[in-house]
Amino acid sequence: MALLVGCFREYQELADAYSDQAVVMGIFRHLSHIAQHFLMTLIFMEEIDERHLVRFAESAQEAETVTNELKSLRLFLEQGRCVKVNPYVAFQIKRILSQQVVCSLRIKTKPDKRRPNIEKIVEHFHISWNKIIEFLIWRTRTPSISILQLLIRAGLISQDSQDFQQTAESFRFLLKPTQHQICQLLRQLLVSYQDRAKTAIILYNLSIGKIGQDYSVKGISHGLIADLYELGLIYKYNSKSKRFYVVPQIIGILTNSPKDNIITERFLVVETNFRVYAYTNSELHIVLLSYFMRLEYRLPNLVIGFLTRESVCKAFRDGLQCAQIITFLSNHSKNHSMPDNVAEQIKLWEMERSRINDQEAIMLDEFVDLSLYKSTLNFAVNCGAYIWDNQERRVIILKKERSMPVLQYLQHLDRI
């Protein structure tokens, strides 16, 4: 669902995308259960008064939330006080109920004499994807201009003169499961092409493609094929090849339930004393752990570190959030969870940061008399520059960006 939200500029583009079964099936499976219930209930009805939708929910608020969710994707269309299911969507759902959904990409008629085995296809994905991840971390192996622009639009890197800088969003991106990373870049890939409906149809059909089946590049833009190949999401022998294969990592990523897509490598043991054992020799894993841990020892296939206040707070300053650190540790933990006291302490460290806010300010003191102090204080409050004051010491603290009118006021009085 998230792939399409906000990607289309007008209704007709979305309607064109909904002309394909794979798109509708993918959107439907990513809806909440109650939204799916609404949709299935109403596909055989012409329209219904929006106020009556509360009958299908536990509360009026839930009905309103679900209705807004369906409207945002144009699955529900408004007609005065009534709503109805988008006719394109209703038609495709009825087809899906009566027949199997198959990939609509062109299949090569001639057999491939050089058909690659599954190991070669998977290896291509890991090599290509790791190049992207390594570039985000170490700025090595600069990708093509098209992929660079994709990463910039996604907010994963920023360009300063000739250098590329890592962003806070990049830190958050690297801690996500690979499946979520792929979805995030696919969304950026979708909005970067002029014909978004056709691009969406291709991406969703890749998600229901068949492993080992060779598909034709005919009808797909050269730029999209090149981008998908560089990201490792399709396999080709070379740039001139007229056929391609989908990699297992993209199968089902857009058309299965989100919970079915989460596959993570479990290599961590988190102890109640904040010690973390990482059974890995992956440089990528070690770099990710160093974002929020103090690494102490490195042995063959084992890294030992501690979650400390300093290391976690540094991660917060770099843009990571408490929930992201906890989710990363839980997803990769061999025990499928982490100690409650460790999770609670990370939350407390994040709460510490929200108790104090720093702000540039200007302090005014040494007022010659109380009347000047009070008139200046009133002026500062009225113009929105006031932060704090102490009448006993005759001190006023002003917001730096709004202090100029107050200073001009004092200069006008010629008593500063």
UniProtKB/TrEMBL annotation:
Coiled coil: none annotated. One of its GO terms (cellular component) is transcription factor TFIIH holo complex. GO terms for biological process: nucleotide-excision repair. Gene3D superfamilies: 3.30.70.2610. Component of the general transcription and DNA repair factor IIH (TFIIH) core complex which is involved in general and transcription-coupled nucleotide excision repair (NER) of damaged DNA. Belongs to the TFB2 family. This is General transcription factor IIH subunit 4.
